[in-house]
Design a protein that fits this description.
The chain is mainly alpha-helical and 376 residues long. 63% of the residues lie in helices and 2% in strands.
């Protein structure tokens, strides 16, 4: 039923056994142990890029946590709208929650496939997927410091081959399995602790009760489960578990260091760009003065006199006035000038508004002259 998993797993293990069998011997237990360990390393190397995507997705989800919390409060009574807004927010930020589950989902069938292949190494069997009859017999006869790789300490309904059938003894099996069980539990705890420490940087996620429960499971329940469940697993599975956790620790160190360096570089670039655009100390802000002060601005900028002053100097006067005449104030009454040849009226010279056309003795001056004669 799951041959599409069993065949690839057995093929990778078969290739590595051929490689290490050439060095240590095909019947050596070291060759079979290294074949299992490098089976893990090969699969984890294939899943390296998905793991990097998982870390980046987790970082983005942590950055989005405050916005997601606001959406939960805003649409607390509308689950459908909340789901739509969550998907929209994740799409805008390029976050994929399912991307973080891919490496774990792939490792589960690999674990099941390896467990099934190891169970099929039985005395008298002629083939085991990619392994032939000679290779099956080699696995059954090999041992690692007296411990059989395909045997477990406690037999269950899933154990098709007992320790006695494989020719092993309980003492040798426990001497090898107990340290491996302890190492598997310790490495599982360290790996979980490292992941929890990264999540602690996000206070919003730490306040979630579900997150706190998962952290306790990862830190304590899973490691204890590995130690307690070790006697029920074949010895080769314990090698698989220890090597898988060692790879995870090294991979986390490399990937997190790389991503932290990238984020630090982005922050430095943003800071440098912000400092380049900021005004220097003591520098006055430049103003773009337009409208009525345009002439003054142009004059000061170009090092020449303003346009109004230049026109006044060129023409000698502005609106018929001398260059030294004071400027008119807003609302001031027009200045009147005596007309040439006008006779004084009432002891005062007859005045007319400045700039008004007409000739001496015009209609306005005649009327004033008549009134003066009547008074006399």
């Amino acid at each position: 039923m799951l041959n599409f998993i069993y065949y690839p797993v057995s093929f990778i293990m078969w290739v590595w056994h051929k490689a290490f069998g050439f060095v240590f011997g095909a019947d050596s237990g070291v060759s079979w142990v290294l074949a299992v360990i490098f089976l893990v390393f090969t699969l984890r190397a294939i899943l390296y890029k998905p793991f990097v995507g998982q870390v980046r997705s987790m970082r983005k989800m942590q950055e989005m946590a405050p916005e997601m919390q606001k959406l939960r409060k805003k649409y607390a009574n509308d689950r459908q709208k909340l789901g739509q807004e969550m998907q929209k927010l994740q799409s805008e930020n390029g976050a994929n929650p399912l991307g973080g589950c891919l490496p774990v989902l792939v490792q589960v069938p690999v674990f099941i496939g390896l467990f099934h292949v190891l169970r099929e190494f039985k005395p008298g069997k002629t083939e085991n997927y990619f392994f032939g009859a000679d290779e099956v017999r080699s696995f059954v006869d090999s041992d690692f410091f007296g411990a059989k790789l395909g045997a477990s300490v406690v037999n269950t309904q899933y154990s098709t081959t007992t320790l006695a059938e494989l020719g092993g003894n309980l003492t040798s099996q426990l001497i090898v399995m107990i340290p491996l069980m302890i190492l598997a539990g310790v490495f599982t705890h360290i790996t979980a602790r490292h992941s929890v420490a990264r999540q602690a940087a996000n206070p919003a996620a730490m306040d979630n009760p579900q997150t706190a429960i998962m952290q306790k499971l990862m830190l304590y329940v899973f490691p204890i489960g590995v130690v307690v469940g070790g006697p029920f697993l074949p010895l080769a599975i314990l090698f698989y578990w220890v090597s898988n956790n060692l790879w995870t620790l090294g991979q986390q160190y490399v990937v997190y260091k790389r991503i932290d360096a990238e984020e630090a570089e982005k922050k430095e670039q943003a800071t440098a760009q912000r400092n380049a655009l900021a005004p220097k100390p003591g520098q006055k802000p430049q103003r773009d003065v337009r409208g009525t002060t345009n002439g003054t601005t142009n004059g000061t900028t170009n090092g020449s006199a303003p346009a109004d002053e230049a026109d006044a100097d060129t023409n000698g006067s502005v609106d018929g006035e001398s260059p030294s005449a004071p400027a008119k104030k807003p609302g001031a009454k027009p200045v009147t000038k005596p007309m040439p040849g006008a006779k004084p009226v009432g002891g005062k010279p007859a005045n007319r508004p400045a700039g008004q056309g007409g000739r001496p003795g015009g209609g306005g001056n005649r009327t004033q002259a008549r009134k003066g004669k009547k008074r006399r």
